[in-house]
Amino acid sequence: MTVFAVAGGKGGTGKSTLAAELTLALTRQGRAVIGIDLDEQHHYTTRVGVTAATEIYSVAADVLKGTATLTEAAVPAPAIPGAQVVVATHELGTLNPFSVPDLVTGLRDHLRAGGLGDADDLIIDCPASLEDVTLTALAAADIVIATAMCEYDSYGELPRLEQRIKSVIAPRVRPGAQIDYVALGRFDKRRGMDRKILEEARATYGERVLAPIRQATEVGKAFRAGQPVGLFKPSSTASLDFVDSLGPIIRAHSSRSTS
Question: What is this structure's pTM?
């Protein structure tokens, strides 16, 4: 079992898109995947094909409150065979340690007690912030994937995310926690700023920086279609970039799974 948390620290970093592409990539390896959407904007929920017609019995907030288990809340992801999803609702934005005393550690403990059931992997799409519900995901994760766009206000969130992990999560909640991978989106090699950000990221995070993902109109079109880009237009620039970028994660994960 591997738990992936995809975090960005703010909105518009491409985390929900990457989480959906990672879900697709893992299922194509024959993995049984559950994705839980902890972002009240529910973009991951949309990207895996959930619509108003999808039958939902419990939601992500219920799992965090302990009123439903992960497997009780998970429903088949309409767009991705082999994947299940626990959908997001606006209630996630109301959760805090006063209303849910074990908010930060509850999901971690639920998973340690076998909460993932027969599934192989869990993918968590984090909220667009570094507050309580994001800490829930970081506490539960084995692997943290940080996303940012090639813009300084977006890239500038990565040190804040790293500091949050080091100061709150790593000391006692999940020793050894760190940013394991960095994914940069909207990359255009013709722009000096993009090249500089990529250079800075590689200087700071080294081999943890994944191949950058170029800007492409298919990303927005795929969202409107309720599909990952890799299903919407497999031959597109965006789809090929995601395959290239996620390759090291999939290969490392497959190696661990078969060892």
Answer: 0.96
